[in-house]
Q: What sequence folds into this?
């Protein structure tokens, strides 16, 4: 029943489109449609789990291996100086499905504290370009 109503489950099943940058057996990673900065990705388990506490121990490794890979790929692809990696559990969780934010960072990028100005991509083309940069970086990192 959850898969029918959860946005991220619907994205994982292919019922709702998203700009997917990476997928493996357990996880799906796509660009946030309201990014803090271009390249802001969401890593989700393909199965529905609402919080980190509900994620089975057997999936903690696979999910966070993807988070680790994406944090490296986002830095490489976007020439970022680092990444911000975050997860909300219930409070401030806009979609009640476990998801980890991987956000490219540069010094003096304006992101301070927890007041985060959300933006939009200038166009579908710019979103596709960012996707391709990250996907290419993943290929390089997996070699």
A:
């Amino acid at each position: 029943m959850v898969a029918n109503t959860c946005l991220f489950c619907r994205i994982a099943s292919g019922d709702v489109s998203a700009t997917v940058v990476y997928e493996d057996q357990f996880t799906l990673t796509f660009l946030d449609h309201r990014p803090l900065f271009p390249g802001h990705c969401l890593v989700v388990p393909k199965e529905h789990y609402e919080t980190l506490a509900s994620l089975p121990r057997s999936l903690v490794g696979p999910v966070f291996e993807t988070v680790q890979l994406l944090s490296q790929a986002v830095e490489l692809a976007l020439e970022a100086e680092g990444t911000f990696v975050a997860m909300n559990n219930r409070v401030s969780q806009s979609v009640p499905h476990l998801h980890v934010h991987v956000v490219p960072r540069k010094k003096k990028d304006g992101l301070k504290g927890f007041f985060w100005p959300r933006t939009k991509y200038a166009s579908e083309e710019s979103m596709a370009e960012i996707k391709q940069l990250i996907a290419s970086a993943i290929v390089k990192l997996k070699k």
